[in-house]
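Forwarding these from the shared drive since the link keeps breaking.
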Amino acid sequence: MSSSCPAPGASRRTSRKQSGVNDFVVKFANVNGSGSASANNLFAKAIFRMGIPVSPHNIFPSNIQGLPTWYEVRVNERGYLGRREGVDLMVAINEQTIARDIESVLADGYVLYDSSKPLRPLRKDLNFLPIPLRDICLREFEHPGQRQLFQNIVYVGALAAFLAIDFEILTGMISQQFRGKEKLILPNVHALELGYQYAKDHFDCPLPIRLEASDRARGKILMDGNTAIGLGCVYGGATIASWYPLTPSTSVVDSFGKYCKRLRIDPGTGKRKFAIVQAEDELAAIGIAIGAGWNGARAFTASSGPGVSLMQEFLGLAYFAEVPVVLFNIQRVGPSTGMPTRTQQGDLLTCAFASHGDTRQILLFPSTPRECFEFAAASFDIAERLQTPVIVMSDLELGMNEHLCEPLAWDDSRRYDRGKLLDAEALDELESFGRYADVDGDGIPWRTLPGAHPDKGSYFTRGSSHNAMAAYTEDGDVHAEVMDRLARKFANAPQHLPEPELETAGQRYGMIHFGSTASAIAEVRDALAQQGIVLDTLRIRSFPFHEEVSRFIEAHECVYVVEQNRDAQMKSLLQIECKAANYEKLRPILSYNGVAISAEHIEAAILQDQPSLAQLASA
């Protein structure tokens, strides 16, 4: 129903009128490797520390340096922090892209640029803020490296004047960042002051778009999803991570290692109580994790689409041999190498049925860093309870960008769920042990760990067909019995998985979404409600689906399915699993240009679809 929207900055945008105070978008256009990332992050964090809801989005190339990079910061007092179309203030530092960057600014918007070199006027409906960044740094700093780096700090200082950022917050953050390196504090603060004073001396400050201290972000945190996953793995009891580096998943294991060094060191001996193994490829990485899970450890690996493709064979082994393991898939744009540093939700079908044959996998869909933490910790319980792989489906937008969320929380009384695990005492009471016997009728067999008992509980783990006693078989009927038991296990799985999140009021139309698209949904609902279109919404948080998902579809005349891929993969999965009587009622809203879907894109697609819905209803 809806194709992908154009690439960011490709054409001039229009957007709903912004109020100006605590409600605008600033975009930085830089060159990758120029040192701009830390300055831009300083800008976003300063706004957050003023208590104002803020959402930064880093749009960067997959090379080391030299190509264009963008950093987009949305400020919104109401807490609408999904990506917004259009830019109110462009910091245009990259000469390669300056024409295209200026074109993306909304009418009456602002452009801050380096006037050390003349700029040919490109638009008459914008307000230009020329600041000679290079000339200022040439005059004030002797070291060539400082001259380049401090240009970024100078424009942050100017923005502090233009937008009324609390200057003490900026200087305090610099002092904190360079604590113990006092020689770096003074020149950084001096660069801030240079930009601030130049803006004050040459322009009316602050601009109509500006900031006022607020309490809307008080008590919340800024965190990226990959960091939250790494910490969640520690709290979830993981002790082994095996991996092969792949953007955008690498920082998951980096984060896990960082927290393990703080929390998994034996205080008495100083020995590490964790292992991080870099494998030769992705197939080996998940093989190591499966082996560790078979041996009783809580283990995981992290990857993205290309790596998950290579892991298919071992995912099938873990499914059929029923070995717990966790995989974090931080999705990026495909197919093939695709765009490694852009976001997408294109791996749903690949992961739901990963491996050949009749295979089903457990999927979890976090939407916030807090859920990344919670789902990461819970995934190990689920994997052991169901004795199967669990794939946590994040993406680059959620994984690598910082998001405003509630503080993380943990119940110290919580105990790990090891599932149906027999120890030596329990084995002593059994006459016989069948590794794949359905003793309780729920499809989940009992398992043992290597060495649990000197005489009982041992079995041969195989990926070939086996019977209830784990013995090899080529009896087709016996194989079918095992497959039927696995189907029962997955039919019962939803009771152990996160339930969908519903906001319903008995409306005719509904909207289904999942993962990082959640950041745009509240804004869409409010915008449509102002136009007389009220939608019920359901956020999917796991697969296999709960019964509530089927009931939601059946209860509505039309259900929009919002997802970030070309082929409407979630819609296809809903059709396969929910067996909806009327497939036409599922209407996809798609975006696959590599940037986070915006509320305007979803709203426009629904408004465009309304006439055809009316015709369908009358027919």
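-- next protein --
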Amino acid sequence: MLIKNHLAGLVKQAIVAAQTAGALPAFAMPDVFVERPQRKEWGDFSTSAPLKLARDAKRAPLQIAQVIAAHVPSDEAVAKVDASAPGFVNFTLNGAWIAKQVDSILAQGAQYGNLECDKQLNIQVEYVSANPTGPLHIGGGRNGAIGDTLANVLQAAGHKVQREFYINDNGSQVRIFGESIFARYAQALGRDEPFPENGYQGSYIVDMGKQIAQEHGEKFLNMPRKDATRTLGRMGIQSVLDGYAKTLNRMGVRFDNWFSERSLHDDGTFTRALKILQDKGLTLEKDGAVWFAAQELGEDKDAVLIRSAQVIAEPDERPTYLGSDVAYVWNKLVERKFDRAIYIWGADHHGDVPRVMAVTRALGLDASRVTLLLHQFVNLKRGGELVKMSKRAGEFVMMNELLDEVGPDAVRFMLISRSADTTIDFDIELAKKQSDENPVYYVQYSHARIASILRKAAESGMTPEGGDVSLLKHPAELELIREMMRLPEVVELAAAKLEPHHLPHYAIDLAGVFHSFYDQCRVVSSEPGDEAISRARLKLVNAAKTTFARTLTLMGVNAPDSM
């Protein structure tokens, strides 16, 4: 149990005891929330419950706080309970109990920070899902870092999580992509083939064409043009997806499932979901197209689900993205029975959010089971100057280029270091610095320094074995343990708010507290009689190493033993 929840239980016991003693009148037990106060002099934790009880108790909040504080039962974790204006009950933790948490952290090891939730949910997190028509760019990289870290956090919070990449492999983009590849393929074979006006640009298309020409010769020139472009489009999509998988694997971003949009149409899911809307009178036909009657649900305007045959000739190109989204949300919540579906999209999709939520309601599903997280864009900078172009692709900064120059750890850390709704300025030069200015280096160096301390101690015959944590009484020691104890709370917060950026913020705070401890307390002393405190401090830094490693692992960042 989180200590704040344990303290909330003590407050509830105090309220019951005060009511039994007649010090407080009878009223229904309120929800009690215990939090860390803004100022350290107010203690380790505090609750504002008395402020909310003033009306029911018909007392001044400060008086209620004083009564509750006087009735809090004794507890080994608590050294002091007091009341403060205008109506807070403050808790100061017992130093001896704090020191015991070192052994608890070491016992949990790589599981430290994991929570047991009251209700385990089966959650799907869908992320990246970039159109597979070109190399992964930095925006897709941020999406992947957020999604993968969020999945880690939700698992640590006790839920079952499936990670999914949604492949946009249906519709006109496949044909256009195929026509673009065909043109470059034919040109590679010496044909004077015009490039389609709305084709996909970039040297990667030229490279694809050359590779296909080398591997298949004139095979696709001898096929009917429609079949050739369709086949090349699907081949190109698979090639891009293979590239995505390699790039994302370099970042430590992984998936349990790669889900094809086309499968929603091939297996009849789209038809089934559309019929539900039709049976509810929530579709209409206009200008040869099938529309979602969104205005019936209070939306500003209706939206096309299936384009007119007069506009789009090919039947499989007529369903819109929204049409597929109707089938996809049905597939997630009904056919695959996820309790919750989390989509992570770029901010440029903000206009699609209300429509997806509207079709969810239209299908008769609980819209609270669907969450669409939007992330802002990434400005890549070098020495203060904006980096606009990729050396290779021509239109965007490719993730592979950034990974080559900066490395995956810095990329992962930086891309989740800000709230998703905030634009990131990614400074390449800062990410490469090996100094405390670089937050990634600062945190990883803390872990490496501890590993070095433990190695050198072992070489001199000193280990944490038998260390007595009750000797840990120095304020800097206790402050480090307090900070280590925050990790489960950070996991809870990040999971509840779906905000993985709390992890890197915590990691930086933990590094700061560790370095302060290291400056004030010599871990291994050669002075006579200091063996006992040295072993206790080795236990402490070993627990700190566990906490750093767990935090970094949740972020998908390596925890190096040397740097």
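The first strand starts at residue 34 and ends at 35. Residues 225-250 form the longest helix (26 residues).

- D.
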